[in-house]
Each structure stands twice: as structure tokens, then as C-alpha cells.
Amino acid sequence: MVFERKYSDEVRNAAVRRVVERRQAEPGNRSILREVAEEFEVGEQSLRIWVKRLDDGMFSVGEAAKLRQAPRERLLARIAELEAELESAHVRIGAMGEEIEVLKKASVIFAAELAKR
Fold this sequence. Notes:
Blueprint: H1 9-25, H2 32-40, H3 44-56, H4 62-116
């Protein structure tokens, strides 16, 4: 018996790409494979195998391989942004701390002046 491919490469690639996208958007959703299999009218077990092969690095699915790397790059960029913001906030907080100390000293002086009157 000759093995026939039931699904085209386009369908397989699109389904795997959708799984990758949905996993990124909905990391806690455990029914993604079932939903995507229904959406593309493919067998859930077939889709599971295709995704496993992608996850194992056995084959690359065009954009899906890029999508797998993209979140890491976006996360690293976002971490760098947040670190820069945090550093900026530390500088502002440090300056505010100095301003607060000046205000405390000024309030002591004003309170002393009011007490004299």
C-alpha cells in the first residue's frame, strides 16, 4: 500500500502556524489543538504530530519557525525597555528623595519661625 499525503503542505503549514500564534496569544488554553484541527478540518492527531515535529526541530514551517523565535526577541526588547524605564525611575526617585529632605529641613525652619511668634 502506497502512503498518500492526505493534507497539502499549505494546509499543514497554515494549521501549525495557527497553533503557534494561538499558543502565543492564549498560553493557558489547552484546547488549541482541537480547535485548530476543527478549523482546518484536519485530524487532531495529525496536527499534534506536525506541531511536535516543529517543536522538536525536525522541520521548519516557514513563518511558524520565525514566530517561535519572535516572542523571545520581543521579550528581550521589552525587558531592555523596562530596565531603561526602571533605571530612569530610580534616578527620578533619587532626585525626589533629595527634594523631600530639603522640604523636611524647610518645614523644620518654618515650624521654628511659627513657634517664635
